[in-house]
Design a protein that fits this description.
The chain has one domain. It is built from seven helices and no strands. It has helices spanning 11-26, 38-46, 57-83, 92-102, 111-127, 132-136, 141-169. Helix 5 crosses helix 7. The protein is globular.
């Protein structure tokens, strides 16, 4: 008989499923469990969205950010119950932040500017100047996400400043197709 080796799903197994799904989402399919620098790993994995052929990357990134924020709100609290406040395995917030930095239609999404965007986002996410640190010191899913949203805003301001300065000082070297 084919079905004899199939284990019956118990009530305890069914209770574990939402936590497993929540951890999978909040950790970007496990990348948050990287042994070193899980936030940076999560931010780099979030760049994978750039390999999907969208018609309009800015719109796609804004939508991805909104969906990621909602998924984070739905999953982070459950993951925190298991792993503690703002555990390092939660990197969906890094993905949301990275997508927000990249969502601008004004800065080209070539290798140079994507690396600059990544470096700036990680700088502000790790450094946590005010008010990022204030959000980071609060508890709950909203604040776990918001410290990265604010870090993304800071990174975007500096990214735009650098881009526009490069346009002014080095007009030939800021070709979006480089």
């Amino acid at each position: 008989m084919e079905g004899e080796n199939v284990k019956e799903v118990t009530e305890e197994d069914a209770k574990k499923a939402p936590l497993f799904i929540g951890v999978a989402i909040a950790s970007l399919l496990g990348t948050g469990f990287a042994p070193k620098a899980p936030g940076t790993v999560g931010s780099i994995v979030a760049l994978g969205i750039l390999f999907i052929p969208w018609g309009n990357y800015s719109v796609a990134l804004w939508i991805a950010s909104a969906v990621g924020f909602v998924l984070g709100m739905l999953t982070i609290a459950r993951v925190e119950q298991r792993y503690g406040n703002d555990p390092s395995c939660v990197v969906i917030d890094e993905a949301v932040g990275m997508w927000l930095v990249l969502a601008t239609p004004l800065v080209p999404r070539n290798l140079t500017w994507v690396i600059v965007a990544l470096a700036l986002f990680r700088l502000f996410d790790i450094w946590k100047p005010f008010p990022i640190r204030w959000f980071n010191n609060q508890r709950g899913s909203f604040y776990v996400l918001m410290d990265d949203v604010v870090a993304a805003a800071f990174a975007s301001i500096v990214l735009h400043s650098l881009f526009f300065a490069s346009q002014y000082f080095f007009p030939s070297s800021s070709n979006p197709h480089l």
